[in-house]
Design goal:
CATH class of the largest domain: Mainly Alpha
Largest sheet: 6 strands, mixed
Bound molecules: adenosine-5'-diphosphate, zinc ion
Strand content: 5-15%
Radius of gyration: 38 Å
CATH superfamily of the largest domain: Peptidase M41
Distance between the termini: 64 Å
Amino acid sequence: MNLFYKNLTIWLIIGLTAILVLNLFKGQPETVNVLTYSDFVDKVKNGVVTNFSLHKTSATWTNSNGERFRAAIPEDPAAVQPFIDAGAKFEIIPSSEPHWFLRIVLSWSPLLILAAIWFFFIRKGRNQDGKAMAFGKSKAQLFDCQQSTVRFKDVAGIDEAKEELVEIVDFLKDPTKFTEAGARIPTGVLLYGEPGTGKTLLAKAIAGEAGVTFFSISGSNFVEMYVGIGASRVRDLFAEGKKKAPCIIFIDEIDAVGRHRSSGATGGNDEREQTLNQLLVEMDGFEVNDQVIIVAATNRLDILDQALLRPGRFDRQVLVPLPDVLGREQILKVHARKIKAATDIDWKMVAKSTPGFSGAELANMINEAALMVARRGGEVTISDLEIAKDKVMMGAERRSMIITVEEKRITAYHEVGHALVAWMLPGADPVHKVSIVPRGKALGLTMQLPETEKHSHSYTYLFNNLCILLGGRVAEELIFDEITTGSGNDIERVNDLARKMVCEWGMSKNIGALVFKASEQPGASRPLVSEETIQEINGEIRALIDTAHDTARQILTDNREIMEAITLVLLEKETINHRDMQAIINPARG
Ligand code: ADP
Ligand code: ZN
């Protein structure tokens, strides 16, 4: 719809410009020499001009060379007397008035053309949407109204979230049980958690289990550039929901509408505020008997307007977390059912090797593997999954990218720098894989895999990470006595991590357990921090990074021969794993 108006505007502008340009050219007269009245009278009297035409107050003639002349003469009929006296011949051209009907048509024609264009586009719009002039009609009504086929069994690994929603399903199925008991079921449920954790899926599952209609709309669709449209969309959406009750109305990305109102610097966004206010009004107007449950999803609970979270609105908040290792195994199995997978795949192992993956990423990984196998034929094997995992995690390999030998050498030392520092630091996550095949934007990668899932990190672990991140840059310094832009991303992460350690987690001795977090709210007043404190903070961050840099340098200097040996193998094989490194570092144990 948005695109449609944009197109319309563009066409209107093109049309108007064309009309303007045409008019400009049409009105352009031929070159005519203009004379004053007195000069003209002289010329007639002297017999220079003997023959002319008169149209109202404008006399025109052509001389013997074919040049055209014009002179304006007074309206007074007496003004032609001198010409009669001089015996000049002149022809009076009557002013031809066009027919009144033609005149009206002509004067209205631009408007008629515009109207025709409008009409044309609106008819087109109607064909697409099934509704003419659907300005304020919610897209939920026009697009996303479905009978959900998703069931709770399709949602895996987030059992706690599921449990909290079971009673909503019961209520939608049989409200009397609840109303008789005098229990009030929440009309608004807010699902919050990282992207891809299955919030949409859960909402669909509620509708599917209860067998009710599922309306869905994204918060960003409410906020259009036309003021008032968002609010009227909300109105229509709720009206439609009530008509089709019992039903679920799902609002994805509610933070697009539900941000803190007037959060300063960006200036009040009237449109968004109006939409939000309308949403609040509609939610307040709900009766429990309406049997409409609003489910909203966001990954930014912290920026939502408090008004949205008040009782009677989204007062049930359900966290949809990233799955743990058990959850991942269950999600993998749910999606594995849909493909042809080898029976000997140990899903527990796969789950272990995918820490931090969201449900969507796991689903994506299985799909990638299935796609690869579809081309080849056969069953998905564990090595297909491994390739698919890397692809989901780091982007597709770019084997065709042209890399000079020198660049490849630098990349190899850089990655081995990361890997070797990680290897040597006790307590760091074990190195899983090192590769110099370019992927996405990266020229190479070093992957570590935690042995167990961690929920909090020690100072030592974080400090080790600083050293590992700096390992790449340090290797370049040692070997080439030169540094490249290849470490840009590493350095950004080092700075980020060190700042958090000092400012958020109270991990520096001199600053202690004070928090200096930059406020997330734009325009919120800045924390009162003195210039000295800022300097002190920066000093601590610098000290932390310097120490980590020295540690990495020490490790790589002490193990330079090993570094050279691993790099040689890496340059040859392009990808090496834990075992390959083991064989070089500890040949006896390998
Ligand atoms: P969100 O709304 O939280 O961003 P979605 O619900 O859109 O995430 O998840 C996208 C896809 O990822 C789903 O369609 C599903 O295939 C898969 N998925 C995510 N979480 C789960 C889960 N817990 N169980 C099974 N599949 C999941
Ligand atoms: Zn690096």
